[in-house]
Amino acid sequence: MEVHDAIMSRRSVRKFLPDPVPMASLRRILEGAGMAPSGHNIQPWQVWVVAGAVKQALSADILKAIADDPPERHQPEFDYYPTEWFEPYIGRRRATGFGLYGVLGIAREDKAARLEQMNRNYIFFDAPVGLFVSFDRRLATGTYMDIGMFIENILIGARGEGLHTCGQAAFTWFHDVIRRHVPIPEEQLLACGIALGYEDTAAAENSLRVDKLPVDDFTTFLGFDEA
Predict the structure, then answer these.
(1) Average per-residue pLDDT in the chain?
(2) What region does 52 belong to: left with phi over 0, alpha with psi -120 to 50, or beta?
(3) 112 within a domain of the structure (yes/no)
(4) Predicted structure pTM score
(5) Which tens digit of pLDDT belongs to each residue from 94-152?
(6) How far from each other are the two terminal CA atoms of the chain, in whole angstroms?
(7) For residue 179, what pLDDT is reported?
(8) What is the CATH number of the domain that holds 46?
(9) Number of domains in the chain
(10) What are 192's strand-pairing partners?
(11) String of b and e for 118-127 (b: at least 16 CB within 10 Å)?
């Protein structure tokens, strides 16, 4: 797949087929991800790949924690979202959420169905492979940029293998539960989870196409000839 085609076809898939992912594909994806730039080439990333019984037990444990524990018991270790939303970001966020629930036929007032859909994050949307990306918490804020570039390489590399992904910040709320199943050292901060597999093209949720800003909405060109 051409690089531009891989970028343009990347999106968050929320229902996967159970078909196994070849280990050779996983290794090529991670090899490519490891070519990401990082400040002073420190390469701060660690990846934990789960499948089979390990993934199933981890998912079951998170869902049990959701059912049994008070909501405040599980919190992420860093703020991914603002405490108060504002425009234009709240509008874009709502458009994506309403779009997803719309294609699934979930009404705005149906909180139970919305929660059920949210909790599908924790079974990796049925993907056969899950990844967790972490980095040393003693590093500085710039490391988040390094990790972002590394994660993007995973997402684009997956498209090159004919696979799809979904980046999942939702897993950061349950870093303590994940550590029961994945040997992430305490000095490592969990950045996100990633679902990876083959898209279920018949699934309604995968028909969603979100709007992306045109180039001129987020770019200012300076010093170029008009021609």
Answers:
(1) 97
(2) left
(3) no
(4) 0.96
(5) 999 999 999 999 999 999 999 999 999 999 999 999 999 999 999 999 999 999 999 99
(6) 32
(7) 98
(8) 3.40.109.10
(9) 1
(10) 133
(11) eebbbbbbeb
